[in-house]
Amino acid sequence: xxxxxxxxxxxxxxxxxxxxxxxxxxxxxxxxxxxxxxxxxxxxxxxxxxxxxxxxxxxxxxxxxxxxxxxxxxxxxxxxxxxxxxxxxxxxxxxxxxxxxxxxxxxxxxxxxxxxxxxxxxxxxxxxxxxxxxxxxxxxxxxxxxxxxxxxxxxxxxxxxxxxxxxxxxxxxxxxxxxxxxxxxxxxxxxxxxxxxxxxxxxxxxxxxxxxxxxxxxxxxxxxxxxxxxxxxxxxxxxxxxxxxxxxxxxxxxxxxxxxxxxxxxxxxxxxxxxxxxxxxxxxxxxxxxxxxxxxx
Length: 297
Fold this sequence. Notes:
It is built from eight helices and seven strands; from the N terminus they run βαβαβαβαβααβααβ.
């Protein structure tokens, strides 16, 4: 078991939606390491129990909630799992989401658009709606998964960028509306992270897209799931007590960059940091599929 540097989330009750793979898995482990009791959510096809078991093996506290949180009953079941197990809710992490295909907008299947809206936007709305009454009791907070694509748009997946832009606006509205209850609401906005979404072997990106992603990032590399989990842990902690309505870019500088500055990055800069979370086994699983949709990029 890795000894924590601090315990910023000691005894906090946190739901992490989409916690079985990728960034969500890292968030669940990081929060447990920081002392939180974590409700690990994922779909029935996700390795939810494996993440829970690994957290427990490392001395943390976690329970599973296998449910589709874009469904009303599924979202309610996750809120209930936290409250029934631990008696309250302090933190909601809206990390569930998908990136299914790459295609120009004129070729984009309507059913895939609908699926993105359901999984990326409806899930955030439902989880937030059902969590708010309990977060008012604890003066808790919400952190949702935004994206640099919500700032900049995303060619060949304008729908994905659009869903993230909606989440940005929604969370800013939630922050403004609920500040009077002591609730904070923020977004983490990653750039290209080393998960299935940015790997041609596991997701919808092509080899050309992979190269362009790192070339467009001043640091010349993908971020790691743990680097994102570190930002989530700060925003969810009392150390960020005056931060609300923020869109927190953690994108390696891609939003402010012009051209291909990543091509100039020194070799030592482009190396991913080692990190402290040793049991992340599902970084390249989930949230994507090449599926039946064969689109020419």
